[in-house]
Amino acid sequence: MPCREFLIPPRASYRLAGTFILGKSISLYPAEDPDRLPLRQLSNDLNRLKTIAKFTSSQKDAGVRIIRDKHITGDEAYRLTIKPDGIEITSRTAAGAYYAIQTLRDLLKIYGKTLPALRIDDSPALARRGVYLDCSRGKVPKVKTIKQLIERLARWKINELQLYIENIFKFSFDPDIGRGYSPFSVDDILVIQQHCNAHHIRLVGSLASFGHMEKILALPKYRHLGELPGYNGHPGGTTLCPSDPGSIKLISQMYEEFLPLFQADDFNICGDEPWELGKGRSKRRTKKLGIGKVYLNFILKIHKLCQKYAKRMNMWADIVLAHPEIIPAIPKDIVMLNWDYYPEGKRMQRTNEIVDAGLSVVCCPGTHGWQSHGSRMKHAINNVARFSRIARKYAAEGLLNTDWGDFGHRNTLGVSLHGFAHGAACAWSDTKVDHKHFTERFCRDLFNDKKGKLATALRILGAESGYHLYHALVEPFDLTKPMPLGSPLGYEPRVIDDQTIKSKDLHDRYEMLKALRIPRISVADEFEAVALEEFDLARQMDLLACKRMLIGRDIRAGRKVSATLLRRLNEQMRGMMDEFARLWLARNRPSRLRDNLAAINQVISETEAMLRK
To answer: By residue range, what is the domain housing residue 578?
Structure first.
Protein backbone atom coordinates (compact mmCIF):
# COMPACT_ATOMS: atom_id res chain seq x y z
CA MET A 1 0.00 0.00 0.00
CA PRO A 2 1.62 3.30 -1.02
CA CYS A 3 2.35 5.67 1.86
CA ARG A 4 1.48 8.62 -0.36
CA GLU A 5 -2.24 7.93 0.05
CA PHE A 6 -1.85 9.60 3.44
CA LEU A 7 -1.88 13.35 4.04
CA ILE A 8 0.96 12.80 6.52
CA PRO A 9 2.71 9.74 5.09
CA PRO A 10 4.21 7.20 7.50
CA ARG A 11 7.84 6.20 7.16
CA ALA A 12 7.20 2.58 6.14
CA SER A 13 4.17 0.34 5.59
CA TYR A 14 3.97 -3.36 4.77
CA ARG A 15 0.94 -5.17 3.37
CA LEU A 16 -0.15 -8.27 5.28
CA ALA A 17 -2.59 -10.99 4.32
CA GLY A 18 -6.29 -10.34 4.72
CA THR A 19 -8.47 -7.49 5.92
CA PHE A 20 -9.95 -6.21 9.15
CA ILE A 21 -13.69 -5.54 8.93
CA LEU A 22 -15.40 -3.28 11.44
CA GLY A 23 -18.64 -4.66 12.78
CA LYS A 24 -21.44 -2.99 14.67
CA SER A 25 -19.28 -2.57 17.77
CA ILE A 26 -15.63 -2.66 18.83
CA SER A 27 -13.79 -2.55 22.17
CA LEU A 28 -10.92 -0.13 22.83
CA TYR A 29 -8.10 -0.70 25.33
CA PRO A 30 -6.96 0.81 27.65
CA ALA A 31 -9.85 2.45 29.46
CA GLU A 32 -7.60 4.79 31.47
CA ASP A 33 -5.54 7.90 30.75
CA PRO A 34 -3.23 8.95 29.13
CA ASP A 35 -4.44 7.19 25.98
CA ARG A 36 -8.08 7.96 26.56
CA LEU A 37 -8.15 11.24 24.60
CA PRO A 38 -6.95 9.84 21.24
CA LEU A 39 -9.13 6.77 21.73
CA ARG A 40 -12.12 9.08 22.19
CA GLN A 41 -11.18 10.76 18.90
CA LEU A 42 -11.08 7.33 17.29
CA SER A 43 -14.41 6.45 18.90
CA ASN A 44 -16.03 9.54 17.35
CA ASP A 45 -14.74 8.55 13.91
CA LEU A 46 -16.01 5.00 14.37
CA ASN A 47 -19.42 6.28 15.37
CA ARG A 48 -19.63 8.17 12.06
CA LEU A 49 -19.04 4.82 10.36
CA LYS A 50 -21.91 3.31 12.38
CA THR A 51 -19.57 1.29 14.59
CA ILE A 52 -20.18 1.69 18.32
CA ALA A 53 -16.94 1.93 20.27
CA LYS A 54 -16.67 1.14 23.96
CA PHE A 55 -13.77 1.02 26.37
CA THR A 56 -12.62 -2.17 28.02
CA SER A 57 -10.20 -3.01 30.80
CA SER A 58 -9.37 -6.34 29.13
CA GLN A 59 -6.47 -6.19 26.70
CA LYS A 60 -7.28 -9.67 25.41
CA ASP A 61 -10.84 -8.79 24.36
CA ALA A 62 -10.02 -5.44 22.72
CA GLY A 63 -10.43 -4.92 19.00
CA VAL A 64 -8.02 -1.95 19.24
CA ARG A 65 -5.34 -2.18 21.92
CA ILE A 66 -2.45 0.08 22.91
CA ILE A 67 0.64 -1.51 24.44
CA ARG A 68 3.75 0.21 25.79
CA ASP A 69 6.98 -1.25 24.44
CA LYS A 70 10.34 0.10 25.62
CA HIS A 71 12.01 -1.43 22.57
CA ILE A 72 10.28 1.03 20.20
CA THR A 73 13.00 3.48 19.16
CA GLY A 74 11.98 7.09 19.79
CA ASP A 75 9.47 8.79 22.05
CA GLU A 76 7.20 9.70 19.13
CA ALA A 77 7.65 6.46 17.20
CA TYR A 78 5.06 3.72 16.98
CA ARG A 79 4.13 0.46 15.30
CA LEU A 80 0.57 0.02 14.04
CA THR A 81 -0.39 -3.54 13.12
CA ILE A 82 -3.74 -4.38 11.55
CA LYS A 83 -4.63 -8.07 11.30
CA PRO A 84 -7.92 -9.76 10.51
CA ASP A 85 -8.49 -10.42 14.24
CA GLY A 86 -7.66 -6.96 15.60
CA ILE A 87 -5.55 -3.79 15.68
CA GLU A 88 -2.50 -3.36 17.90
CA ILE A 89 -0.53 -0.19 18.61
CA THR A 90 2.86 -0.39 20.31
CA SER A 91 4.73 2.69 21.46
CA ARG A 92 7.21 3.73 24.07
CA THR A 93 5.18 6.77 25.17
CA ALA A 94 1.71 8.27 25.11
CA ALA A 95 2.84 10.61 22.32
CA GLY A 96 3.72 7.69 20.05
CA ALA A 97 0.33 6.10 20.74
CA TYR A 98 -1.40 9.42 20.01
CA TYR A 99 0.26 9.64 16.59
CA ALA A 100 -0.53 6.00 15.84
CA ILE A 101 -4.22 6.70 16.49
CA GLN A 102 -4.06 9.65 14.07
CA THR A 103 -2.71 7.32 11.39
CA LEU A 104 -5.45 4.81 12.13
CA ARG A 105 -8.02 7.60 11.76
CA ASP A 106 -6.45 8.40 8.38
CA LEU A 107 -6.91 4.78 7.32
CA LEU A 108 -10.59 4.96 8.25
CA LYS A 109 -10.95 8.04 6.03
CA ILE A 110 -9.29 6.26 3.12
CA TYR A 111 -10.81 2.78 3.43
CA GLY A 112 -13.92 3.07 5.58
CA LYS A 113 -14.98 -0.07 7.49
CA THR A 114 -12.81 -2.56 5.58
CA LEU A 115 -9.15 -1.97 6.42
CA PRO A 116 -6.29 -3.75 4.68
CA ALA A 117 -4.13 -5.87 6.97
CA LEU A 118 -0.78 -4.12 7.27
CA ARG A 119 2.05 -3.05 9.52
CA ILE A 120 3.21 0.55 9.78
CA ASP A 121 6.53 1.46 11.40
CA ASP A 122 6.67 5.18 11.82
CA SER A 123 8.68 7.99 13.42
CA PRO A 124 9.24 11.67 12.59
CA ALA A 125 11.89 13.02 10.26
CA LEU A 126 12.43 16.09 12.47
CA ALA A 127 12.20 16.43 16.25
CA ARG A 128 10.63 19.90 16.34
CA ARG A 129 7.63 20.30 14.05
CA GLY A 130 6.14 23.68 14.70
CA VAL A 131 3.69 26.34 13.66
CA TYR A 132 4.34 30.03 14.33
CA LEU A 133 1.12 32.06 14.46
CA ASP A 134 1.16 35.85 14.27
CA CYS A 135 -1.21 37.23 16.92
CA SER A 136 0.18 40.78 17.01
CA ARG A 137 -0.22 42.54 13.66
CA GLY A 138 -3.99 42.25 13.43
CA LYS A 139 -5.96 39.27 14.64
CA VAL A 140 -5.76 38.15 18.25
CA PRO A 141 -7.48 34.74 18.09
CA LYS A 142 -10.05 33.71 20.63
CA VAL A 143 -8.82 31.01 23.00
CA LYS A 144 -11.52 28.76 21.53
CA THR A 145 -10.01 29.26 18.06
CA ILE A 146 -6.51 28.41 19.28
CA LYS A 147 -7.81 25.25 20.98
CA GLN A 148 -9.55 24.20 17.77
CA LEU A 149 -6.36 24.87 15.81
CA ILE A 150 -4.28 22.88 18.31
CA GLU A 151 -6.49 19.86 17.70
CA ARG A 152 -5.98 20.08 13.93
CA LEU A 153 -2.22 20.64 14.25
CA ALA A 154 -1.85 17.63 16.54
CA ARG A 155 -3.91 15.61 14.06
CA TRP A 156 -1.13 16.39 11.55
CA LYS A 157 1.54 15.40 14.11
CA ILE A 158 2.71 18.96 14.81
CA ASN A 159 4.36 19.05 18.24
CA GLU A 160 5.18 22.74 18.76
CA LEU A 161 3.16 25.97 18.70
CA GLN A 162 4.48 29.50 19.08
CA LEU A 163 2.22 32.55 19.30
CA TYR A 164 3.95 35.71 18.13
CA ILE A 165 3.43 38.40 20.77
CA GLU A 166 4.57 42.01 20.63
CA ASN A 167 2.25 43.81 23.05
CA ILE A 168 -0.88 41.64 23.20
CA PHE A 169 -0.41 40.40 26.77
CA LYS A 170 -1.85 41.86 29.98
CA PHE A 171 1.31 42.76 31.87
CA SER A 172 0.42 43.54 35.47
CA PHE A 173 3.38 45.89 35.85
CA ASP A 174 1.90 48.05 33.08
CA PRO A 175 -1.59 47.26 31.72
CA ASP A 176 -1.20 50.12 29.21
CA ILE A 177 1.08 47.90 27.08
CA GLY A 178 -1.81 45.75 25.85
CA ARG A 179 -4.73 48.11 26.38
CA GLY A 180 -6.91 48.45 23.27
CA TYR A 181 -5.37 45.40 21.56
CA SER A 182 -7.51 42.57 23.03
CA PRO A 183 -4.49 41.09 24.87
CA PHE A 184 -4.11 37.58 26.25
CA SER A 185 -4.37 37.20 30.01
CA VAL A 186 -2.35 34.87 32.25
CA ASP A 187 -5.35 32.55 32.41
CA ASP A 188 -5.60 32.51 28.59
CA ILE A 189 -2.00 31.34 28.28
CA LEU A 190 -2.48 28.68 30.96
CA VAL A 191 -5.62 27.33 29.27
CA ILE A 192 -3.79 27.17 25.93
CA GLN A 193 -0.85 25.47 27.64
CA GLN A 194 -3.13 22.82 29.15
CA HIS A 195 -4.76 22.08 25.80
CA CYS A 196 -1.36 21.82 24.13
CA ASN A 197 -0.23 19.35 26.79
CA ALA A 198 -3.28 17.16 26.22
CA HIS A 199 -2.43 16.93 22.51
CA HIS A 200 1.36 16.47 22.89
CA ILE A 201 2.23 19.96 21.66
CA ARG A 202 4.85 22.14 23.32
CA LEU A 203 3.69 25.73 23.76
CA VAL A 204 6.89 27.74 23.27
CA GLY A 205 6.78 31.37 24.36
CA SER A 206 7.69 34.05 21.83
CA LEU A 207 8.02 37.74 22.63
CA ALA A 208 9.45 40.62 20.58
CA SER A 209 12.48 41.80 22.56
CA PHE A 210 14.50 44.19 20.34
CA GLY A 211 12.88 45.13 17.03
CA HIS A 212 9.13 45.19 16.29
CA MET A 213 8.54 47.11 19.52
CA GLU A 214 6.66 50.00 17.87
CA LYS A 215 3.39 49.54 19.74
CA ILE A 216 5.08 49.64 23.13
CA LEU A 217 7.43 52.44 22.10
CA ALA A 218 4.41 54.46 20.94
CA LEU A 219 3.38 54.87 24.59
CA PRO A 220 4.74 58.21 25.91
CA LYS A 221 6.38 56.53 28.93
CA TYR A 222 8.57 54.36 26.67
CA ARG A 223 9.31 56.59 23.68
CA HIS A 224 12.63 57.64 25.16
CA LEU A 225 13.82 54.03 24.85
CA GLY A 226 13.54 54.04 21.06
CA GLU A 227 16.64 53.93 18.88
CA LEU A 228 15.16 56.45 16.45
CA PRO A 229 11.82 57.94 17.58
CA GLY A 230 9.65 58.94 14.64
CA TYR A 231 11.12 56.30 12.33
CA ASN A 232 8.68 55.44 9.53
CA GLY A 233 5.97 57.44 11.27
CA HIS A 234 6.10 55.51 14.56
CA PRO A 235 6.32 57.89 17.58
CA GLY A 236 8.97 55.84 19.35
CA GLY A 237 10.31 54.05 16.29
CA THR A 238 10.28 50.25 16.12
CA THR A 239 13.57 49.28 17.82
CA LEU A 240 14.86 49.54 21.37
CA CYS A 241 18.06 51.51 21.84
CA PRO A 242 20.52 48.80 22.90
CA SER A 243 22.79 51.20 24.80
CA ASP A 244 20.00 52.61 26.99
CA PRO A 245 19.90 50.74 30.35
CA GLY A 246 16.14 51.24 30.37
CA SER A 247 15.77 48.94 27.35
CA ILE A 248 17.00 45.77 29.06
CA LYS A 249 15.16 46.84 32.24
CA LEU A 250 11.88 46.90 30.28
CA ILE A 251 12.58 43.48 28.77
CA SER A 252 13.44 42.15 32.22
CA GLN A 253 10.09 43.34 33.59
CA MET A 254 8.25 41.71 30.71
CA TYR A 255 10.15 38.43 31.05
CA GLU A 256 9.50 38.28 34.80
CA GLU A 257 5.78 37.92 34.14
CA PHE A 258 5.82 36.15 30.80
CA LEU A 259 8.50 33.45 30.79
CA PRO A 260 7.36 31.49 33.88
CA LEU A 261 3.99 30.82 32.23
CA PHE A 262 5.55 28.43 29.70
CA GLN A 263 6.59 24.88 30.57
CA ALA A 264 8.79 24.41 27.49
CA ASP A 265 12.54 24.77 27.94
CA ASP A 266 12.80 26.81 24.74
CA PHE A 267 11.87 30.49 24.49
CA ASN A 268 11.94 32.68 21.36
CA ILE A 269 13.20 36.22 22.01
CA CYS A 270 12.70 37.09 18.30
CA GLY A 271 15.42 39.75 17.81
CA ASP A 272 14.72 40.16 14.10
CA GLU A 273 14.61 43.26 11.92
CA PRO A 274 15.87 46.03 14.23
CA TRP A 275 15.56 48.38 11.26
CA GLU A 276 16.85 51.56 12.90
CA LEU A 277 19.84 50.00 14.64
CA GLY A 278 22.88 52.23 14.17
CA LYS A 279 20.85 55.05 12.62
CA GLY A 280 19.82 56.86 15.78
CA ARG A 281 20.98 56.98 19.38
CA SER A 282 23.49 54.13 18.94
CA LYS A 283 24.98 55.63 15.77
CA ARG A 284 28.25 56.68 17.42
CA ARG A 285 28.58 53.35 19.21
CA THR A 286 27.95 51.32 16.06
CA LYS A 287 30.43 53.43 14.14
CA LYS A 288 33.04 52.45 16.71
CA LEU A 289 32.14 48.78 17.25
CA GLY A 290 30.12 47.87 14.17
CA ILE A 291 26.41 47.08 13.96
CA GLY A 292 27.01 43.35 14.47
CA LYS A 293 28.89 43.85 17.74
CA VAL A 294 26.31 46.29 19.13
CA TYR A 295 23.55 43.86 18.21
CA LEU A 296 25.44 40.96 19.81
CA ASN A 297 26.03 42.86 23.06
CA PHE A 298 22.30 43.41 23.54
CA ILE A 299 21.51 39.83 22.61
CA LEU A 300 23.95 38.62 25.27
CA LYS A 301 22.06 40.64 27.88
CA ILE A 302 18.84 38.96 26.82
CA HIS A 303 20.63 35.60 26.93
CA LYS A 304 21.41 36.17 30.64
CA LEU A 305 17.71 36.83 31.29
CA CYS A 306 16.79 33.57 29.58
CA GLN A 307 19.31 31.71 31.71
CA LYS A 308 17.76 33.27 34.82
CA TYR A 309 14.49 31.54 33.96
CA ALA A 310 16.19 28.30 32.82
CA LYS A 311 15.10 28.85 29.23
CA ARG A 312 17.08 27.85 26.17
CA MET A 313 17.12 30.99 24.05
CA ASN A 314 15.85 30.80 20.46
CA MET A 315 16.19 33.77 18.09
CA TRP A 316 15.66 34.67 14.45
CA ALA A 317 18.87 34.41 12.42
CA ASP A 318 18.53 37.28 9.92
CA ILE A 319 20.82 39.78 11.67
CA VAL A 320 23.37 37.15 12.63
CA LEU A 321 23.67 36.03 9.00
CA ALA A 322 23.86 39.67 7.89
CA HIS A 323 26.87 40.06 10.23
CA PRO A 324 28.54 36.63 10.19
CA GLU A 325 31.59 37.98 12.01
CA ILE A 326 29.63 37.70 15.28
CA ILE A 327 28.67 34.03 14.82
CA PRO A 328 31.70 32.65 16.74
CA ALA A 329 30.75 34.77 19.78
CA ILE A 330 27.18 33.51 20.03
CA PRO A 331 26.71 31.16 23.00
CA LYS A 332 26.42 27.58 21.84
CA ASP A 333 23.20 26.98 23.75
CA ILE A 334 21.30 29.50 21.61
CA VAL A 335 19.09 28.02 18.87
CA MET A 336 19.07 29.99 15.61
CA LEU A 337 15.75 30.21 13.78
CA ASN A 338 16.77 30.63 10.16
CA TRP A 339 13.84 32.12 8.25
CA ASP A 340 13.49 32.43 4.51
CA TYR A 341 10.23 32.46 2.59
CA TYR A 342 11.20 31.85 -1.03
CA PRO A 343 12.34 28.63 -2.68
CA GLU A 344 15.64 30.13 -3.79
CA GLY A 345 16.18 32.31 -0.71
CA LYS A 346 19.79 33.17 0.12
CA ARG A 347 19.47 32.73 3.89
CA MET A 348 18.06 29.26 3.40
CA GLN A 349 21.19 28.31 1.50
CA ARG A 350 23.38 29.56 4.35
CA THR A 351 22.01 27.19 6.99
CA ASN A 352 25.33 25.35 6.96
CA GLU A 353 27.11 28.46 8.33
CA ILE A 354 25.05 28.20 11.50
CA VAL A 355 25.60 24.46 11.83
CA ASP A 356 29.32 24.70 11.08
CA ALA A 357 29.65 27.15 13.98
CA GLY A 358 28.31 24.51 16.36
CA LEU A 359 24.92 26.15 16.83
CA SER A 360 21.58 24.39 16.72
CA VAL A 361 19.19 25.53 14.01
CA VAL A 362 15.50 25.33 13.20
CA CYS A 363 14.50 26.00 9.58
CA CYS A 364 11.61 28.44 9.24
CA PRO A 365 9.67 28.63 5.95
CA GLY A 366 6.23 30.20 5.61
CA THR A 367 2.65 29.63 4.52
CA HIS A 368 2.62 32.68 2.21
CA GLY A 369 -0.82 33.52 3.56
CA TRP A 370 0.27 37.00 4.63
CA GLN A 371 -0.29 40.01 2.35
CA SER A 372 -2.57 37.76 0.32
CA HIS A 373 -6.26 36.99 0.63
CA GLY A 374 -5.86 33.53 -0.86
CA SER A 375 -2.18 32.68 -0.16
CA ARG A 376 0.57 32.21 -2.73
CA MET A 377 0.33 28.44 -2.74
CA LYS A 378 3.03 27.55 -5.25
CA HIS A 379 5.63 29.64 -3.42
CA ALA A 380 4.57 28.12 -0.08
CA ILE A 381 4.79 24.51 -1.27
CA ASN A 382 8.20 24.98 -2.92
CA ASN A 383 9.55 27.00 0.01
CA VAL A 384 8.52 24.43 2.64
CA ALA A 385 9.58 21.43 0.55
CA ARG A 386 13.05 22.81 -0.11
CA PHE A 387 13.64 24.06 3.42
CA SER A 388 12.59 20.71 4.89
CA ARG A 389 15.21 19.02 2.73
CA ILE A 390 17.84 21.48 3.97
CA ALA A 391 16.72 20.79 7.54
CA ARG A 392 17.35 17.08 7.03
CA LYS A 393 20.65 17.67 5.23
CA TYR A 394 22.11 19.72 8.09
CA ALA A 395 20.47 17.78 10.94
CA ALA A 396 18.39 20.76 12.02
CA GLU A 397 16.31 20.41 15.17
CA GLY A 398 13.17 21.00 13.20
CA LEU A 399 10.90 23.00 10.95
CA LEU A 400 8.91 26.00 12.24
CA ASN A 401 6.30 26.99 9.65
CA THR A 402 5.48 30.70 9.99
CA ASP A 403 2.21 32.48 9.31
CA TRP A 404 2.20 36.28 9.47
CA GLY A 405 -0.36 39.08 9.50
CA ASP A 406 1.39 42.09 7.97
CA PHE A 407 -0.66 45.20 7.18
CA GLY A 408 -3.77 44.50 9.19
CA HIS A 409 -3.99 40.71 8.91
CA ARG A 410 -6.89 40.54 6.45
CA ASN A 411 -5.69 37.05 5.47
CA THR A 412 -7.84 34.45 7.19
CA LEU A 413 -6.88 31.45 9.29
CA GLY A 414 -8.76 29.13 6.92
CA VAL A 415 -6.46 30.07 4.05
CA SER A 416 -3.39 29.21 6.14
CA LEU A 417 -4.54 25.69 7.04
CA HIS A 418 -3.24 24.21 3.77
CA GLY A 419 0.22 25.61 4.50
CA PHE A 420 0.16 24.31 8.07
CA ALA A 421 -0.76 20.81 6.91
CA HIS A 422 1.86 20.78 4.15
CA GLY A 423 4.55 21.94 6.58
CA ALA A 424 3.48 19.22 8.99
CA ALA A 425 3.75 16.56 6.29
CA CYS A 426 7.24 17.70 5.30
CA ALA A 427 8.45 17.85 8.91
CA TRP A 428 7.16 14.36 9.71
CA SER A 429 7.57 12.51 6.42
CA ASP A 430 10.04 14.56 4.34
CA THR A 431 10.76 12.68 1.08
CA LYS A 432 7.52 10.67 1.11
CA VAL A 433 5.26 13.72 0.65
CA ASP A 434 3.45 13.85 -2.70
CA HIS A 435 3.56 17.61 -3.26
CA LYS A 436 1.77 17.43 -6.59
CA HIS A 437 -1.39 15.86 -5.15
CA PHE A 438 -1.15 17.21 -1.63
CA THR A 439 -3.94 19.78 -2.07
CA GLU A 440 -6.42 17.09 -3.15
CA ARG A 441 -5.59 14.99 -0.09
CA PHE A 442 -5.79 18.02 2.19
CA CYS A 443 -9.27 18.90 0.90
CA ARG A 444 -10.37 15.26 1.10
CA ASP A 445 -9.18 14.81 4.68
CA LEU A 446 -10.25 18.14 6.19
CA PHE A 447 -13.32 19.00 4.12
CA ASN A 448 -14.52 15.66 2.75
CA ASP A 449 -13.95 16.98 -0.78
CA LYS A 450 -14.02 13.72 -2.70
CA LYS A 451 -14.40 15.22 -6.19
CA GLY A 452 -11.47 17.64 -6.02
CA LYS A 453 -13.56 20.75 -6.67
CA LEU A 454 -12.37 22.52 -3.53
CA ALA A 455 -8.75 21.67 -4.34
CA THR A 456 -9.17 23.34 -7.74
CA ALA A 457 -10.72 26.41 -6.09
CA LEU A 458 -7.88 26.70 -3.55
CA ARG A 459 -5.30 26.59 -6.31
CA ILE A 460 -7.11 29.40 -8.12
CA LEU A 461 -7.26 31.45 -4.91
CA GLY A 462 -3.60 30.75 -4.17
CA ALA A 463 -2.22 32.70 -7.14
CA GLU A 464 1.02 34.67 -7.21
CA SER A 465 -0.93 37.90 -7.84
CA GLY A 466 -2.15 37.68 -4.25
CA TYR A 467 0.31 40.29 -2.97
CA HIS A 468 -0.87 42.98 -5.40
CA LEU A 469 -4.54 42.23 -4.80
CA TYR A 470 -4.14 42.34 -1.03
CA HIS A 471 -2.89 45.92 -1.14
CA ALA A 472 -5.05 47.06 -4.06
CA LEU A 473 -8.19 46.40 -2.01
CA VAL A 474 -7.51 49.46 0.17
CA GLU A 475 -5.23 51.59 -2.01
CA PRO A 476 -6.78 54.99 -2.91
CA PHE A 477 -7.22 55.91 -6.56
CA ASP A 478 -5.91 59.43 -5.97
CA LEU A 479 -2.13 59.37 -5.81
CA THR A 480 -2.00 63.04 -4.78
CA LYS A 481 -3.18 62.00 -1.34
CA PRO A 482 -0.18 60.42 0.35
CA MET A 483 -0.78 57.23 2.27
CA PRO A 484 0.01 57.84 5.94
CA LEU A 485 3.12 56.31 7.41
CA GLY A 486 2.69 54.80 10.83
CA SER A 487 -1.06 54.37 10.31
CA PRO A 488 -2.79 51.52 12.17
CA LEU A 489 -2.32 49.25 9.16
CA GLY A 490 1.21 50.43 8.51
CA TYR A 491 2.51 51.72 5.18
CA GLU A 492 0.60 50.24 2.27
CA PRO A 493 2.73 49.66 -0.85
CA ARG A 494 1.56 51.28 -4.07
CA VAL A 495 0.47 48.50 -6.38
CA ILE A 496 -2.18 49.69 -8.85
CA ASP A 497 0.42 51.09 -11.24
CA ASP A 498 2.90 48.26 -10.67
CA GLN A 499 3.36 46.85 -14.17
CA THR A 500 4.75 43.54 -12.95
CA ILE A 501 1.11 42.52 -13.19
CA LYS A 502 -0.25 43.37 -16.65
CA SER A 503 -3.75 44.70 -17.26
CA LYS A 504 -4.55 41.70 -19.47
CA ASP A 505 -3.55 39.37 -16.65
CA LEU A 506 -5.74 41.38 -14.30
CA HIS A 507 -8.71 41.02 -16.68
CA ASP A 508 -8.11 37.29 -16.93
CA ARG A 509 -7.81 36.99 -13.15
CA TYR A 510 -11.01 38.98 -12.68
CA GLU A 511 -12.99 36.72 -15.03
CA MET A 512 -11.59 33.60 -13.36
CA LEU A 513 -12.55 34.83 -9.89
CA LYS A 514 -15.96 35.95 -11.14
CA ALA A 515 -16.65 32.43 -12.40
CA LEU A 516 -15.17 30.69 -9.35
CA ARG A 517 -17.52 29.08 -6.85
CA ILE A 518 -16.42 27.60 -3.54
CA PRO A 519 -18.21 24.23 -3.48
CA ARG A 520 -20.90 23.75 -0.86
CA ILE A 521 -19.58 20.90 1.26
CA SER A 522 -21.21 19.51 4.37
CA VAL A 523 -18.60 19.37 7.14
CA ALA A 524 -19.00 18.01 10.65
CA ASP A 525 -17.32 20.77 12.63
CA GLU A 526 -17.74 24.52 12.96
CA PHE A 527 -14.01 25.12 12.47
CA GLU A 528 -14.05 23.75 8.92
CA ALA A 529 -17.42 25.37 8.16
CA VAL A 530 -15.96 28.80 8.96
CA ALA A 531 -12.91 27.98 6.81
CA LEU A 532 -15.15 27.36 3.79
CA GLU A 533 -16.76 30.76 4.35
CA GLU A 534 -13.29 32.30 4.64
CA PHE A 535 -12.34 30.84 1.26
CA ASP A 536 -15.35 32.56 -0.29
CA LEU A 537 -14.45 35.82 1.48
CA ALA A 538 -10.95 35.54 -0.03
CA ARG A 539 -12.56 35.16 -3.46
CA GLN A 540 -14.71 38.27 -2.87
CA MET A 541 -11.77 40.38 -1.68
CA ASP A 542 -9.55 39.36 -4.60
CA LEU A 543 -12.38 39.95 -7.08
CA LEU A 544 -12.97 43.47 -5.74
CA ALA A 545 -9.24 44.15 -5.62
CA CYS A 546 -8.99 43.17 -9.31
CA LYS A 547 -11.85 45.51 -10.13
CA ARG A 548 -10.25 48.35 -8.15
CA MET A 549 -6.90 47.87 -9.88
CA LEU A 550 -8.51 47.98 -13.31
CA ILE A 551 -10.64 51.03 -12.47
CA GLY A 552 -7.68 52.73 -10.82
CA ARG A 553 -5.55 52.30 -13.91
CA ASP A 554 -8.31 53.81 -16.06
CA ILE A 555 -8.65 56.80 -13.73
CA ARG A 556 -4.92 57.42 -13.60
CA ALA A 557 -4.70 57.15 -17.39
CA GLY A 558 -7.43 59.76 -17.77
CA ARG A 559 -10.00 57.33 -19.16
CA LYS A 560 -13.64 57.86 -18.19
CA VAL A 561 -15.17 55.45 -15.70
CA SER A 562 -18.95 55.22 -15.57
CA ALA A 563 -20.81 56.30 -12.44
CA THR A 564 -22.80 53.06 -12.58
CA LEU A 565 -19.60 51.03 -12.34
CA LEU A 566 -18.39 53.07 -9.36
CA ARG A 567 -21.72 52.77 -7.53
CA ARG A 568 -21.76 49.03 -8.06
CA LEU A 569 -18.18 48.80 -6.79
CA ASN A 570 -19.13 50.57 -3.57
CA GLU A 571 -22.17 48.36 -3.05
CA GLN A 572 -20.00 45.28 -3.37
CA MET A 573 -17.32 46.76 -1.09
CA ARG A 574 -19.92 47.38 1.64
CA GLY A 575 -21.28 43.85 1.32
CA MET A 576 -17.78 42.40 1.50
CA MET A 577 -16.99 44.60 4.52
CA ASP A 578 -19.96 43.20 6.46
CA GLU A 579 -18.91 39.64 5.68
CA PHE A 580 -15.31 40.44 6.60
CA ALA A 581 -16.39 41.77 10.01
CA ARG A 582 -18.64 38.78 10.67
CA LEU A 583 -15.95 36.22 9.91
CA TRP A 584 -13.27 38.18 11.77
CA LEU A 585 -15.41 38.05 14.93
CA ALA A 586 -16.21 34.37 14.41
CA ARG A 587 -12.59 33.46 15.22
CA ASN A 588 -10.93 36.52 16.71
CA ARG A 589 -11.10 39.26 19.31
CA PRO A 590 -12.28 42.65 18.06
CA SER A 591 -9.36 45.04 18.58
CA ARG A 592 -7.89 45.71 15.12
CA LEU A 593 -10.99 44.95 13.15
CA ARG A 594 -11.78 48.66 13.40
CA ASP A 595 -8.52 49.57 11.63
CA ASN A 596 -9.34 47.35 8.66
CA LEU A 597 -12.90 48.62 8.47
CA ALA A 598 -11.57 52.19 8.57
CA ALA A 599 -9.23 51.44 5.66
CA ILE A 600 -12.07 49.93 3.60
CA ASN A 601 -14.39 52.81 4.49
CA GLN A 602 -11.72 55.26 3.39
CA VAL A 603 -11.67 53.98 -0.19
CA ILE A 604 -15.48 53.75 -0.24
CA SER A 605 -15.62 57.41 0.81
CA GLU A 606 -13.13 58.34 -1.88
CA THR A 607 -15.33 56.73 -4.54
CA GLU A 608 -18.43 58.48 -3.15
CA ALA A 609 -16.61 61.81 -3.39
CA MET A 610 -15.77 61.07 -7.04
CA LEU A 611 -19.47 60.42 -7.73
CA ARG A 612 -20.44 63.79 -6.23
CA LYS A 613 -18.18 65.73 -8.58
So the answer is: 458-612
